[in-house]
């Protein structure tokens, strides 16, 4: 007999998502309010759930599929990130993103699989989400950062991946700021307006997928061949369930300590006016990652806004406070002022946070959790490309397919458990603090 599941944490207000706010008004919402039957239910309308539902529908066009999302699709983490579809190694717990040759090659294979899948959907349906295959810059601000980039470049050479060095003047020509001492350009990264992408993916799902938003699953009861999903009002009786709830999975049984809900935060400026754009200089759109994974990610957007992301906070209860957001905004302001002294009058208009789902050993959950219940959970900070891949592949696996990438995901380590709380809380928060302190100049 499979076990029942109870969901105890749900998306809570965590700032104002600039990506969502700068889009046209959202489409009308359908919530679940009666008792319905489906062959499949995908829980979670982030990138993982959207790819899982799409792939299920493609492979099983006669199946009935429900995609249920606690909030609005595009307003939660998958629509709140910095929009980098990273193809290369990107271990944010390491000093320079790289791991071993074998692990790096496996990561690249998987991530490109995910990116290709989403890119194909964007192209096929003309999804308006500013999808760009323009690559990314890893920029350093001092010798320590340069050494980390050199280490990263060596790792890329070992796996035969191209990169190109830019000196101080060359990166200033791109960004308009003389803040960076140099950069490494890697061509394979794609970038998007993440909220627009999530909305677009939802709007173009095959017809056998029905979406319910503002519909949080409260629990799943195992009734032999059926699973009964309960909501605030209404139920779904389903034959099979796919859990794609990322950090929110950290709070139900089985793996209580291995999945770590760690928030990161971003701010977006108002749109610059033509005179400010000219003062800044540089190119109209670029995407930059810090040499130290704990530093600041910065993007200049096609709509003349700038988006800054930094700061991490372990929040096991999946809630951030007003003080968390105020602290994040002041760190973003500082980072913005250091980089763009010529834009003193350009305010940060929106600030928000969102939970990543990390684990100390880069482990994630993929596969069959229970009879009729599958899971693809644990983005380790790279949900756009990894989530796309694991969402697509969990659907294939659940339908009985087998391939090398499915095996790769099945064989990845499970998130390693930590000591019980509150010891784990103190240990994780202290580790984040030390890493952020060490990133210093890159913030
Ligand atoms: C500021 C910021 C910047 C980031 N930058 C990047 C980046 O540039 N590139 C990158 O790859 N990653 C980035 N990330 C991480 C990325 O956003 C995540 O890895 C990604 O969203 C994971 O996708 P997911 O679909 O697995 O999970 P989520 O996006 O978290 O989606 C899970 C969904 O499940 C829903 N849900 C939870 N519980 C329930 C329930 N009981 N019932 C129904 N629905 C439920 C949630 O509302 C949520 O929509 C960033 C994150 C943040 C916060």
UniProtKB/TrEMBL annotation:
Pfam families from the UniProt entry: DAO
Domain (FAD dependent oxidoreductase) ranges: 39-396
InterPro entries recorded: FAD-dep_OxRdtase, FAD/NAD-bd_sf
Signal peptide: none
Molecular function (Gene Ontology), one example: oxidoreductase activity
Cross-referenced SUPFAM superfamilies: FAD/NAD(P)-binding domain (SSF51905)
Keywords: Oxidoreductase
Protein name: FAD-binding oxidoreductase
Organism: Trinickia violacea
């Amino acid at each position: 007999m499979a076990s029942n599941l109870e969901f105890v944490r749900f998306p809570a207000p965590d700032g104002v998502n600039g990506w969502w706010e700068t889009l046209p008004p959202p489409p009308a919402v359908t919530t679940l309010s009666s008792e319905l039957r489906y062959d499949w239910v995908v829980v979670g309308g982030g990138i993982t759930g959207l790819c899982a539902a799409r792939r299920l529908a493609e492979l099983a066009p006669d199946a009935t599929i429900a995609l249920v999302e606690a909030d609005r699709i595009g307003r939660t983490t998958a629509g709140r990130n910095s929009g980098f579809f990273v193809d290369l190694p990107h271990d944010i717990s390491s000093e320079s993103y790289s791991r071993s040759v074998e692990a790096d090659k496996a990561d690249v294979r998987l991530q490109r699989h995910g990116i290709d899948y989403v890119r194909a959907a964007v192209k096929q349906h003309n999804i308006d989400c500013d999808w760009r295959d323009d690559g990314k810059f890893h920029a350093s601000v001092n010798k320590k950062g340069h050494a980390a980039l050199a280490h990263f470049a060596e790792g890329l050479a070992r796996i035969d991946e191209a990169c190109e060095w830019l000196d101080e003047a060359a990166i200033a020509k791109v960004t308009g700021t003389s803040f960076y001492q140099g950069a490494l350009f890697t061509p394979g990264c794609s970038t998007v307006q993440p909220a627009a992408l999530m909305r677009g993916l939802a709007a173009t799902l095959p017809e056998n997928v029905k979406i319910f938003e503002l519909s949080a699953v409260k629990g799943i009861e195992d009734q032999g061949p059926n699973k009964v999903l309960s909501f605030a009002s209404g139920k779904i009786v389903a034959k099979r369930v796919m859990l794609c709830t990322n950090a929110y999975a950290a709070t139900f049984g089985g793996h209580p300590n291995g999945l770590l809900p760690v928030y990161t935060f971003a701010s977006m400026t108002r749109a610059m006016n033509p005179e400010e754009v000219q003062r800044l200089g540089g190119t109209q759109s670029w995407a930059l990652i810090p040499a130290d994974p704990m530093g600041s990610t910065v993007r200049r957007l096609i709509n003349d806004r700038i988006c800054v992301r930094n700061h991490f906070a372990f929040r096991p209860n999946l809630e951030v406070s007003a003080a968390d957001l105020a602290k994040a905004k002041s760190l973003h302001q500082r980072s913005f002022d250091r980089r763009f002294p010529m834009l003193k009058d350009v305010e940060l208009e929106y600030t928000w946070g969102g939970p990543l789902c990390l684990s100390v050993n880069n482990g994630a959950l993929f596969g069959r959790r229970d009879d009729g219940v599958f899971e693809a959970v644990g983005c380790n900070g790279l949900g756009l490309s990894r989530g796309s891949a694991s969402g697509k592949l969990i659907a294939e696996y659940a339908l009985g397919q087998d391939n090398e990438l499915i095996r790769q995901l099945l064989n990845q380590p499970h998130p390693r458990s930590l000591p019980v709380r509150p010891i784990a809380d103190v240990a994780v928060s202290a580790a984040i603090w030390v890493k952020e302190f060490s990133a210093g100049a890159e913030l």
